[in-house]
Amino acid sequence: MKEAFKIIVVLTVICLICAFFLSFVFSVAKEKIEMNAKRAIEEGISKLAPCAKRVEEIKLKDEVVYKLFDEQDNSVGYAFLAQGQGYQGKIKILAVVDSSLEKLEGIEVVESVETPGLGARITEALFMEQFKKLTVIPKIEYVKEEVEKDNQIMAITGATVTSKAVVNILNKRIEELREELKG
Amino acid sequence: MAEIIESKIKMKKEFIKGLWKEHPILRQLLGMCPALAVTTSAINGISMGLAVIFVLFFSSLVVSLIKKVIPPQVRIAVYTVIIATFVTVVDIFFKANFPQISRALGPYLPLIVVNCIILGRCEAFASKNSVLVSLLDALGMGLGFMWGLFLLGSIREILGFGSLLGVKMMPPEYNPLIIMILPAGAFLVLGFLVAVMNRLELRIKD
What we know:
Chain A is α+β, with helices and mostly antiparallel strands.
């Protein structure tokens, strides 16, 4: 009985000390971590939409969308984060779309763990360039041969699953945005 | 006098052993998960190595300090809590100060919690030895782990990307061996390294 009591006391004390220590470290670093995430988004936006001079956060359901304004304070579009399952794990994309939600200004793959040399090539400029001024009506399509329409992109050879995932993630999120921004 | 010299020799031995004779990756084959998964580039190897050294050092310190208070029945649980605490500290630190590296290491940074080297050193060494010797043991093992990761990462980066620490090493006509970056490449390089290590060891013995 005495033995059991000692075990409980020691474990509790150690866990309490660890918990207090961790919450202290976290409270110190919290601000910096949030700032890093925010800065990454701001840098991405200024790269994709250089004309955007002012960014306004809009809260939609549970996610944030960034409304972009140019020098004359006209709305030039929206920036948003979209994520979903890729071939090996989560793909996270930052995209900028015009204010009528008809054309993409461009995309940037923020996070991905795809196969190096194959799927990971979605992070290369050559692939991401294809999304510049891409029409998203009725939706983005991917092809394996020649691009014929202006809502099509070419899939990466040997990484169709990843290319398809990028297209689907964007289509789904844009569809959602159309619904949410209407209301 | 003789005692001091003897303890000095012992200390040196405890520090050196992790660097070569009981090298955690190449001799004990411990910590294979991070060793194989994150070493796609040299810088990832170094970052993971530094993170492990930090966790190993402080876990060994705390464990050897409180070894007399820990009831033997729950010692593994206590070690795990202590290790998890320091791993979370490292994870938060990387997220706050080196977000790029934190992203590259992905889930493998928090997974240091289950790295068998750390639990192994706490259980086999720090819980039985004095603070100073435990720290030397932790540092030696940590540094050994780091040079192993760095070597693995360097070889894979040079063959797979044609660069080292991001600097181009190969002529432009070099066609990178993508397989070296893929998991299979990790096993291949590790196998060769262990073979080389065994050969060297035999030669030293002769």
